[in-house]
Amino acid sequence: xxxxxxxxxxxxxxxxxxxxxxxxxxxxxxxxxxxxxxxxxxxxxxxxxxxxxxxxxxxxxxxxxxxxxxxxxxxxxxxxxxxxxxxxxxxxxxxxxxxxxxxxxxxxxxxxxxxxxxxxxxxxxxxxxxxxxxxxxxxxxxxxxxxxxxxxxxxxxxxxxxxxxxxxxxxxxxxxxxxxxxxxxxxxxxxxxxxxxxxxxxxxxxxxxxxxxxxxxxxxxxxxxxxxxxxxxxxxxxxxxxxxxxxxxxxxxxxxxxxxxxxxxxxxxxxxxxxxxxxxxxxxxxxxxxxxxxxxxxxxxxxxxxxxxxxxxxxxxxxxxxxxxxxxxxxxxxxxxxxxxxxxxxxxxxxxxxxxxxxxxxxxxxxxxxxxxxxxxxxxxxxxxxxxxxxxxxxxxxxxxxxxxxxxxxxxxxxxxxxxxxxxxxxxxxxxxxxxxxxxxxxxxxxxxxxxxxxxxxxxxxxxxxxxxxxxxxxxxxxxxxxxxxxxxxxxxxxxxxxxxxxxxxxxxxxxx
Length: 513
Hints:
By secondary structure, this protein is an alpha/beta fold. The protein is built from nine helices and 23 strands. It has helices spanning 52-61, 107-116, 132-143, 149-156, 185-202, 225-234, 266-290, 328-343, 377-387, and strands at residues 2-16, 23-25, 65-68, 92-94, 99-101, 120-125, 167-170, 207-211, 240-247, 298-306, 348-354, 363-365, 371-373, 391-399, 402-404, 410-412, 414-421, 426-433, 440-445, 453-460, 480-481, 491-496, 500-507.
């Protein structure tokens, strides 16, 4: 049997795990908003037309932040179309996804909706067709209490209190050829700087997110240089740099760049994701050093996800929209992505899974009033519940099994993260076994915490890794509580099934020093 052995010491921390690391993303695409979250003609809905069943699942998921309203959509969107009386709102040809936008949902509906759920909005502004003036007016509408044109209009529209937007993303994927009014890095850097200045003048407390590289895929020619040029122009005016990445193991599914990856290449995805984070962090630190600055720029990984065969293709006008069907193995991959984010929580402070409902969603709906959890729902839910607000620990890996990929050599078979919750006195281990055929014997030394008591072991596993949750069988792939071995002097020995996602929880009385 393959073996993995590692040590986590209470004295060696990555950093605090910000709750905003467990965010998601809502865009006006396909049936994410219309026909998903908002569907006034379907079953149980609230007074604004939002589905109650979807609302309940979002609460159950535990998402902390939602990025809205895009996405490619935002680069052609006039936010003023989505305020005021619904019957007076315009219908427009939406250019990002080739549909008609009826503007029945805008910021005056969606932001109060998620605020009531205890979710923090990450608001995106249009810097494609939009201007710095437009970005400033949107923030004034949202964050100024009263006494100005746009704040008074918000109050007139029925929203007396300001929305208090904390995170403000200026543009979306402005380096992408598929983007409405894409920019060169120099063009975007200048518009960004002026938009950020206006935003900070309107509300000095707002955290500004700039567009970094929207992918690190081979073929994306501005990768790295884009980030450097943007930072060199606007470093003093921003707080976060945004990065995006979608991974695809379906060679028949082509998006912007040729991929050809197979399911055997999945272990490479995590090496690539780590490299992406580390490279852009390095660019941030290069500019910081060049400017002799003490200011730290953090990363907002505000679009990440796994491509399914039903995924929308950027720049393609005629396409069918439905919902993502995620397999049991996809849930293991999702768990691995979450482990990477946790292990880089010193620099990745915000992250948004893409998307929340239907198109790429962890939640799927139909027109008959049913809503289900996709398999990937569960790793996200568990990470958000057990890691948020804790401290991720550094791993010292002594032994790690490797898997051979089709195109990228050998890569780790396991993706893991360890989080300590000092206030709860708990240690949580998250582990994705990517090996689709063999068990792995896992040995973890946590002896620096003293004796440990098992609280729970959760396993998400199915004999057939292609199993999916469907409307006919909504609970085919779900985590199950199974018996865990008792740690011996703080050391854990467990067997991980092939293609499984695992969560181990232990109680300890020790405190991090």
